[in-house]
Design a protein that fits this description.
Elements lengths: L1 E12 L2 E6 L5 E2 L2 E3 L6 H13 L4 E15 L4 E13 L15 E6 H7 L3 H26 L1
Parallel strand pairs: 1-6
Antiparallel strand pairs: 1-2, 1-4, 2-3, 2-7, 5-6
């Protein structure tokens, strides 16, 4: 089995989260393999920028997920271990990168996104990340008010 370390972002704008529609018509979060000696932090920011065109900042760690699949081209199983980060952006501008296989994307209200997301572990990740995101943003507002 091939093990791949990956990183990705749960990107929020206000009360919306960014989703991508991949070549299999699955709604997923931006992520990718950690390459070139990058840290998970830097790899996540880079993948979000490449796949979505979104300039985001990391607010917190969101946890890790893992999934396995059989690679037809490699003729063996692959395990992707993904380190996730909660991210925030100040703009809804985006461009789903069609050159690398994404068909669509955008920011969606949380309740709508939860119905769209293909995989249950991504749904759980978004749900937990959104709760943490709201708490972080509330704390930031309170700090500014002081």
């Amino acid at each position: 089995m091939i093990f791949r370390n990956c990183a990705g972002g749960v990107v929020f704008y206000a009360n919306q989260v960014f989703l991508l529609k991949n070549e299999k018509n699955e709604w997923v979060l931006p992520k990718g393999k950690i390459r070139d000696g990058l840290s998970p932090h830097d790899a996540a920011l880079k993948r979000v920028k490449i796949e979505t065109g979104v300039d985001a900042e990391i607010l917190s760690n969101a946890g890790e997920t893992c999934y396995e699949f059989f690679s037809i081209s490699r003729k063996q199983p692959v395990c992707n271990q993904i380190t996730w980060f909660i991210m925030h952006t100040r703009s809804k501008d985006f461009k789903a990168n069609k050159e690398i296989g994404f068909k669509d994307g955008g920011f969606f209200p949380i309740d709508v996104a939860m119905d769209m997301i293909t995989y249950s572990q991504d749904k759980s990740l978004v749900n937990l990340s959104y709760k943490k995101y709201k708490e972080i943003m509330r704390e930031k507002r309170e700090e500014k008010a002081v």
